[in-house]
Amino acid sequence: MEQIEFRGVTKSFSKGRDKVVAVTNINLAIPKGSFLSITGESGSGKSTLLRMIAGIERPSAGTIYVKDVDLWGLRYFKRRRFCKETFAQMHRMIDVRRYKTALDMVTRELPKSMDKAAKRAKALDMLDRVGLANRASNQPAKLSGGELRRVALARALATERPIVLAEEPTGQVDPSTAKALLTLIREINSQSGTTFLVVTDSEALAREATRTIRLEEGRIAYDHSRTFSPFTRH
User: What is the pTM of this model?
Assistant: First the structure.
C-alpha cells in the first residue's frame, strides 16, 4: 500500500514578473515503511517537495495523497490536525528560544495525555539513544550544532508518528556520531515500520536509505532502490 503518493505535482512561484517552477510533474509512490532519501543540488526542489508533503506549501497542480487522504483537499484546520498527527518533523533550522533544556525540547512534543513522569522517561530514553542522556539538563543555547541535531532527532522519534520528515538529520555532526544516528534511523525504520523521508546533501546518508531519488531542475532524474540484510543490533 502506498503511504504517500504524488500524482502530477508541480509547484511554481512568482518572482516579480517571472514565474519560477520549483518542481515539475512529479509522480512518486512511497510505500509504508520506506526509508527514502531525497538528494539534489541547491535549488533542485527537494525542500519544496518535503514542504508540500508536510502541508506547508500548496502544489500549483496535481494531487498529494497521504494514507489515502487528499492532503490539499482538506480544509486548513483539518489539514493542520492531520499533519500534526501524521508527521514528526526535523527542520533544518532549529529554534530553541522557548525551551529551557534539551529534555524540555523533547517532552513538549509528546502527547498532552501522557503524565509528566511518563513524558520524562520517554524523553530521557530517546536522548540516551542519540547519545545525549548526559546533556538532558543543558540549556539548548549551550549545545553545539551537532548536539542540537541529535536532540531534534530524539524529539522526532519520541512522538512515534508514522512518518518522519527530516532535513539534514546528520548536519553539523561528526562522522562517528553521524554513523551512529544513521544506524538508529535504520533500526527504527526496520523494526517499527516508521517511514522516513530525508532531504540531504550527504552521500553517506543517502546510501543508508533503502531508496534514493535525485532531483534535477525540479524533476526526478534518478530513482534507485537497494536492499539491506535484516537489521540486528550489536
Answer: 0.86
User: pLDDT tens digit string along 107-124?
Assistant: 998 888 899 999 999 999
Tell me the fold of 2-225: Rossmann fold (3.40.50)
What is the DSSP pairing of strand 61-66 with strand 2-15? antiparallel
Q: Where are the chain's structural domains? A: 2-225
Give the Cα separation of 86 and 211 in Å (integer). Answer: 21
| Angle between the N-to-C axes of helices 145-158 and 116-129, in degrees from 0 to 180, rounded to the nearest 10 | 130
Q: Cell match 538532558: residue?
A: 136
The dihedral sign for the CA sequence 184, 225, 197, 2? negative
Residue with cell 512561484: 13
All 3 cell numbers of residue 105? 525540547
In sequence order, the β-bridge partners of residue 212 are 37, 224
Nearest in space to 86 (alpha carbons), one of 167, 172, 159: 159
Residue with cell 540549556: 139
